[in-house]
Write a structure and sequence with these properties.
single chain, 607 residues, alpha/beta, Pyruvate-ferredoxin Oxidoreductase, domain 3, Rossmann fold, 4 domains, seven-stranded mixed sheet, six-stranded mixed sheet, 38% helix, globular
Length: 607
């Protein structure tokens, strides 16, 4: 018996209308007071290809992908074989028994409901038959998993409150499925959703929406973007929130500028222009967009203009897999553009950090006068999950950094746009219109001296480049520090991870502990790396670097920037486009630990 701790996976056809029914199931579990984390795995075409929707139900709050399936809702004949194979031994297969099942396994329990036949008998309209079949299987699952049907009925009423006529037929379809399951199947089964109070005051939101709201609170008034999966919903969320928070309630005047540019190159150019003029501006894109923005990003770095770039990563290179997740833009973001460049990069782990890091990114960009990347990925950006409620200090004010005032210029301040007068590598800047006659507003992407005068003098160029590097060192004390979690007992091995990998890592630690493997953890939250990162590596014999890309990109950064012996950093890489799982991490680390132990115990041969 598994109570409030199992995985349900829905196998559907894209465009079949299953998404709303699957979301209804997840929200019903949440309304029962049990944490649930959904993941939508969908193709890049409009309809016809396979899609999966996985729900991790965990009263302990594990939000990462676990790996394996306890209950497969197999609604797609195209993927039948792989769906049946994916069920854990002892698990359950739910399917439409209107047609006979094939290729079944002896170690799973098969649960059939003739959904098509029931819909054909109840409805005459073809589209209704398809849509209500989805609601019908939610009703059947409510009986099988012991979910209170009144919870689902309430959710249906809320969903269709603007279209009351749709409430009754949806409730009817749900009840048809539930009543058939109760009459013909052993309800409930060995997987149960039992009422609990484990959700608490947490909110349910996706990372893109959270980041869009964070941009509003961070003071952004300009957004320029070009649609690209999976970042489009971030810009759309910003638009929705601006309609509410950036609109004068009396006049209806918008106090923001949101531009859908003709391409990514134009969008980052607009952002840089607005930021140079004093606005807080950002763009949202994905890997291909970052590729197109390279030259402008170099301009912003060298001219020292603040900008925020949200990169919601997907599987590359080229078009890659547009609707699959990866962490494969780490190096592209850190070193974007040609020449010697280094950019600040933030790695949020969940929607809560998407909100806070989004707002913080604008302060960092202004203080450091440089582009700042916020690296999400599809898993964290487009999937909803529970997280701590957002909080905001109304006394907080925007940190604009070193902006020279008109009074200071009038008082005769020795203003040099690229002078380091404070020893932190960050110069003072002026904004257009600050003073009628004083202040240097013109900037360029070519070499200059401390007073922004054009020069190709090698010594002046080198001084400027060294100051930029010093500014990057200053950034170490401003970006979010890494979070360290040591095991209950002393451990000689550790693991470094970041971003959306954190959710699976939390559960992997429990799996490893059950096998007697003690592991210290360090979650990196920003680049440049704080000294704590190097200290963590020094404290351990071996450190696993867990990431979702082929080339171990964070590990490469650690080796390059920290001058760490590569042999001390062990790759744990997952890059098939699906979210990394707790079981994958635990298995990879367990196997590596075994290999190390075998090498140590092997007899030494003298020569």
């Amino acid at each position: 018996m598994k109570v409030n701790d199992f995985v349900v996976r829905f196998a559907n056809v894209n465009g079949s209308g299953s998404a709303s029914a699957n979301q209804l199931f997840t929200r019903a579990v949440l309304r029962m007071g049990v944490p649930a984390t959904p993941r939508n795995i969908f193709p890049s075409n409009i309809q016809g290809l396979p899609t999966w929707y996985e729900v991790r139900i965990s009263q302990d709050g594990h939000a990462g992908a676990r790996g394996g399936t306890d209950l497969m809702v197999a609604m797609n004949p195209q993927t039948w074989a792989q769906d049946v194979a994916a069920i854990d031994p002892g698990g359950f297969l739910f399917y439409d028994s209107t047609r006979p099942a094939r290729d079944l396994r002896d170690d799973i329990t098969v649960l059939g409901v003739p959904l098509t036949a029931l819909c054909n008998a109840a409805y005459s309209d073809p589209r209704q038959r398809q849509i209500f079949k989805n609601i019908m299987y939610v009703g059947a699952l409510s009986a099988l998993l012991d979910i209170d049907p009144t919870v689902i009925e309430t959710l249906i009423a809320e969903q269709f409150k603007a279209k009351n006529k749709l409430i009754a037929p949806n409730v009817q379809a749900m009840r048809l499925g539930r009543e058939h399951a109760l009459a013909h199947l052993p309800c409930p089964i060995g997987l149960r959703v039992q009422r609990a109070d484990a959700v608490g005051d947490r909110i349910f939101i996706d990372g893109n929406s959270a980041a869009g709201l964070g941009a509003v609170y961070g003071g952004a008034t300009v957004a320029a973007w070009y649609p690209i999966t999976p970042s489009t919903s971030l810009a759309e969320a910003f638009m929705r929130y601006c309609a509410r928070y950036r609109t004068d309630k009396t006049t209806g005047e918008r106090r923001c500028a949101i531009v859908q540019a003709e391409d990514e190159l134009a969008s980052i150019g607009m952002v840089i222009g607005a930021a140079w003029n004093g606005a807080r501006a950002f763009t949202a894109t994905s890997g291909p967009g970052i590729s197109l923005m390279q030259e402008f990003l170099g301009l912003a770095y060298f001219a020292e203009i603040p900008a925020v770039i949200f990169d919601v990563q997907r599987a590359g290179p080229s078009t890659g897999m547009p609707t699959r997740t990866q962490q494969c833009d780490v190096l592209a973001a850190a070193y974007a553009s040609h020449g010697d460049t280094k950019h600040v990069v933030l790695f949020p782990e969940d929607p809560h950090e998407c909100f806070t890091f989004s707002a913080d990114a604008f302060d960092l960009a202004d203080r450091l006068q440089t582009p700042v990347f916020v690296l999400l990925d599809l898993d964290i950006g487009m999937n909803e999950r529970l997280c701590a409620p957002f909080a905001w200090d109304d006394a907080r004010r925007m940190d604009r950094g070193k902006v020279m005032t008109a009074q200071a210029l009038s008082d005769g301040a020795d203003f040099g746009r690229y002078r380091d007068v404070d020893g932190d590598g960050i110069p003072w800047r002026t904004l257009p219109g600050t003073h009628p006659t004083k202040g240097a507003f013109f900037t360029r992407g070519t070499s200059r001296d401390e007073y922004a005068r054009y020069t190709e003098d090698g010594a002046a160029y080198q001084r400027n480049m060294e100051r930029l590097l010093h500014k990057f060192e200053t950034a170490k004390s401003l970006v979010p520090r890494p979070i360290r979690r040591d095991a209950d007992q002393p451990a000689r091995i550790g693991a470094i991870y970041y971003g959306s990998t954190a959710a699976a890592m939390d559960e992997a630690v429990s799996l490893l502990a059950a096998q007697g493997v003690a592991l210290d953890l360090l979650r990196v939250r920003a680049f440049p790396f704080h000294d704590d990162v190097l200290d963590f590596v020094a404290d351990h014999d071996r450190v696993f670097v867990v990431e979702q890309n082929r080339d171990a990109q964070l590990r490469t950064l650690l080796v390059n920037e920290g001058e760490i012996d590569p042999a001390r950093l062990v790759r744990v890489l997952h890059y098939d486009g699906t979210p990394i799982t707790a079981r994958f991490i635990a298995a990879a680390i367990t196997e590596a630990v075994k290999i190390v132990k075998l090498r140590k115990s092997a007899p030494q041969v003298s020569r």
